[in-house]
Design goal:
The complex is a heterodimer of chains A (172) and B (450). Chain A has 172 residues and is an alpha+beta fold. Chain A folds into two domains: 9-55 and 130-171, no CATH class; 58-124, no CATH class. Chain A is 45% helix and 11% strand. In chain A, strands 2-3-1-4 form a four-stranded antiparallel β-sheet. In chain A, α3 packs antiparallel against α4 (98-124). The longest helix of chain A is centred in the middle third of the chain and has 27 residues, at 98-124. Chain A is rod-shaped. The two termini of chain A are 19 Å apart. The mean pLDDT of chain A is 92. Chain B has one domain (2-442): Formate dehydrogenase/DMSO reductase domain (Formate dehydrogenase/DMSO reductase fold). Chain B is built from 17 helices and no strands. Chain B has helices at residues 11-23, 27-53, 68-92, 98-124, 127-133, 150-181, 187-195, 203-236, 248-274, 283-313, 317-328, 332-344, 352-355, 358-385, 400-423, 429-435, 442-445. The longest helix of chain B is centred in the middle third of the chain and has 34 residues, at 203-236. Chain B is globular, with a radius of gyration of 23 Å. The mean pLDDT of chain B is 93. The chains are: A alpha+beta (172), B mainly alpha (450). Chains A and B meet through α1, β2, α2, α3 and α4 of A and α1, α6, α8 and α16 of B.
Chain lengths: 172, 450
């Protein structure tokens, strides 16, 4: 992957999902397509499969966030009750009433887990990114795209994409 | 079910079909918006009156310290739960029909929970004190909140629910906002571009998005069950006869889903007509929603029966007295409205003809919402008005102020929901494309091997 992301290159627009997936499978193993990006209007599983993606690292964010949440939830209750012990229902003050604290631990788990998941989705997706351009408005509508950086419309890469079934190949 | 659905539209029609109506909604939209704003003003006016003059105008007094405002609070929190059930739980169950209504349902959840959040402040009177008393903030008295109290559990549960629903809803919106960004020009493009975080729809972005969405759905799922259970514990953790019963968590959750699914139906039916979405939100999808409504109605019916049986079987005279009074005492009207609207009328949904007859189904769903409001009123007021000691028995009628604020809350909810409809897509563009026929090439469609 190129270190400096650029929007100058060639974009190939595909209309059909199966043609697009076959193109991805052929193109992603080639060295001359290094740094390519694939676009789709929605998250078809066929594209994930064709791109060879396994399990997303987002799950690590979720796990760390949730465990932090459990710790914070229980910790907050235990610490603050130790600091200012309250007599509730005539029972001993400062007792660590874990059954009651389970509820807060649970809610904080969900809260911090969700926030961490969102953070993971944004960080890994490199979003927000004000620097990258929109290459073609149809890519969020009903067309798929493969973008190859730093090549021109007369290049070998553009020719290969045309042969793989792209309905349009142009410079960006 | 969705595999048998006949789609007249393709994925190429989705963005145009759904977004074109954002620009020019039906005139009824403007009428509805103005009407809801009028109700908002009425609600604000009466709330200002209450804060200035005092809580006596709400009608609350010994022994009924919880009345219409707590009813409204529980009602609105309950409405929100169906949205999360549709977005999160049905996502995990891979129920395809959910993709058409999940955006509206999620928006409904957000606005319902925001509306619910106003009510503890309205109910408490001196809202400027209540807001910070509920949160564990360091203060000069070195006092912390009581973490063993269901009211504090509520604070965390509802804040978590609002935050997670908001995040889930917004992440779902990001690709759709990018679709709008790519269609508009000028200042609008700047705004939608900002709101969509510069989403480009690369396969990596979608990969992480789908994974994260699945985790958010998994995290939101226990919230559907836990948040309304925690709200039910506001009552069940007390000793009041009629409140102190272990059936409350499942009873409240089932009731919440019932009122929420009925409210989704009530919102989506007129809006799909106003925004011409009938070819995207199909009749089959709405029918599936009504089946869910029927299911929860039967659960609620069963819960009412079990509650009655256990009250009698327990041999506790105070408990049984409350249940007797609910049916034949001074507040019996509320009880019977509740039973008919929540249990009897929804039984008509067993009939496929009625499920598919939109006007009848719409009316039944309105009645369900009325019944569910009356259910909370029935639970709260009938247990407080005549509890253990006859010497402390009293009576309660909703005052004009509390009714006006209740109507104001409906206005507030519909007002924000209508604003949402004008500027954001009512149907999730990316997700509806997933349940429509995939754009296979002619070679594949004509029987080529893949």
């Amino acid at each position: 992957m190129a270190n400096k992301k650029t929007d100058k290159g060639v974009i190939a627009i595909f209309q059909y999902l199966d043609t697009f997936c076959e193109a991805i499978e052929k193109v992603r193993i080639r060295d001359d397509f290094t740094g390519h990006e694939c676009f789709s209007p929605t998250s078809y599983h066929e594209i994930e499969h064709a791109s060879g993606f396994g399990a997303s690292p987002v799950r690590v964010y979720t796990l760390i966030g949730s465990l932090t949440g459990t710790t914070v939830g229980f910790g907050m209750c235990l610490l603050l009750d130790w600091d200012w012990p309250l007599i509730v229902g005539g029972k001993t003050a400062g007792i660590a009433s874990l059954p009651a604290y389970v509820i807060l631990g649970f809610e904080c788990t969900i809260l911090l887990g969700a926030i961490a998941t969102i953070a993971g989705m944004l960080i890994l997706g490199r979003v927000p990114n004000p620097k990258r351009k929109v290459l073609d408005p149809r890519l969020t509508d009903d067309r798929f795209g493969i973008f190859v950086p730093n090549v021109g419309p007369e290049s070998a890469q553009a020719q290969i994409l045309k042969e793989l079934g792209a309905e349009e190949v142009r410079a960006t | 079910m969705s595999d048998d659905v006949i789609w007249e539209k393709t994925i190429s029609d989705v963005n145009d079909g759904i977004l074109i109506n954002l620009e020019k909604p039906h005139p009824n939209y403007w009428f509805a918006l103005c009407l809801s704003f009028v109700f908002v003003l009425i609600g604000i006016g009466f709330w200002a009156y209450q804060v200035t003059v005092g809580m006596g105008v709400s009608g609350l007094n010994a022994p009924v310290y919880w009345g219409v405002y707590i009813t409204d609070f529980v009602f609105w929190v309950g409405i929100g739960h169906a949205g999360t059930l549709i977005s999160a739980i049905l996502f995990l169950f891979r129920a395809k029909w959910r993709n058409t209504i999940n955006r509206s349902a999620e928006a409904m959840t957000i606005f319902a929970v925001i509306t619910a959040g106003l009510f503890p402040l309205i109910h408490v009177g001196r809202l400027w004190l209540a807001a910070y008393w509920m949160v564990p903030l360091p203060n000069t008295n070195n006092v912390w909140v009581n973490f063993r109290s269901p009211l504090i559990w509520d604070v965390f549960a509802i804040s978590t629910y609002l935050t997670v629903s908001l995040l889930f809803w917004y992440m779902g919106l990001v690709p759709d906002l990018a679709s709008i960004r790519d269609r508009v020009k000028g200042f609008k493009r700047l705004v939608y571009g900002f709101l969509s975080f510069g989403w480009r729809g690369t396969s990596r972005q979608w990969w992480h998005y789908e994974a994260g969405y699945g985790f958010l759905a998994a995290l939101a799922t226990p919230l559907v069950l836990s948040v309304h259970s925690i709200v039910s514990w506001d009552f069940a953790m007390s000793l009041q006869p009629g409140w102190h019963t272990t059936i409350f968590p499942p009873y409240f959750v089932a009731g919440a889903i019932l009122s929420g699914t009925a409210m989704v139906y009530n919102l989506v039916i007129p809006l799909r007509k106003m925004f011409k979405l009938e070819k995207f939100i199909l009749d089959e999808h709405m029918e599936a929603l009504l089946k869910l409504t029927l299911l929860t109605s039967t659960l609620v019916f069963y819960a009412y029966g079990v509650e009655y049986f256990v009250a009698w079987y327990s041999g506790n005279p105070y408990e049984w007295a409350i249940f007797e009074k609910r049916a034949v005492g001074p507040y019996a009207f509320y009880f019977w409205v509740m039973v008919f609207c929540n249990c009897i009328f929804p039984m008509l949904f067993w009939s496929k003809r009625i499920r598919n007859h939109v006007p009848s189904a719409f009316v039944i769903c309105v009645l369900i919402n009325v019944g569910m409001w009356f259910e909370r009123y029935n639970i709260i007021v009938s247990s407080l008005v005549e509890d253990f000691i006859p010497g402390s028995w009293g009576h309660y009628t909703p005052s004009l102020t509390s009714i006006a604020i209740t109507f104001g809350s409906f206005g507030w909810f519909f007002f924000w929901f209508l604003i949402f409809c004008k500027y954001f897509p009512l149907v999730s563009l990316a997700e509806i494309k997933l349940i429509m026929p995939k754009p296979w090439s002619p070679k594949k469609l004509n029987g080529g091997k893949h």
